[in-house]
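Exercise: predict the fold of this chain.
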Amino acid sequence: MAQTALHIDQRTIGQIQSELVARLGLLGTRAHAKRADDLAIEIDAIRRIARRHGLYPAVAVTQALESALARGERGALIQGWLSILGDAIGSERHDRDACETFAAACSVRLSS
């Protein structure tokens, strides 16, 4: 198990982003057929990986996405959230300003 943790720490941010994009793509293709609880589990896994590697804009979007699921958003509405999450995962910036920008975009989406 220590080797796995060491392996994860040696990956680049680009590799982590690629892994998250792949997870997100798979989630997006199956989102319409999954229960909200199952979506939340997969989104939580993305959030944990993003947090562990300092991809804070993605963390902010996953939190908003889970709120949207809790409010009952499904289908095409979730696809919009997944698109924002993809942008956050791919962001070259991981600083506080970038995080706040994505959080603000989510706030606007939540209120509309």
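Check your answer against the key: Residues 1-6 have pLDDT under 50 and may be disordered.
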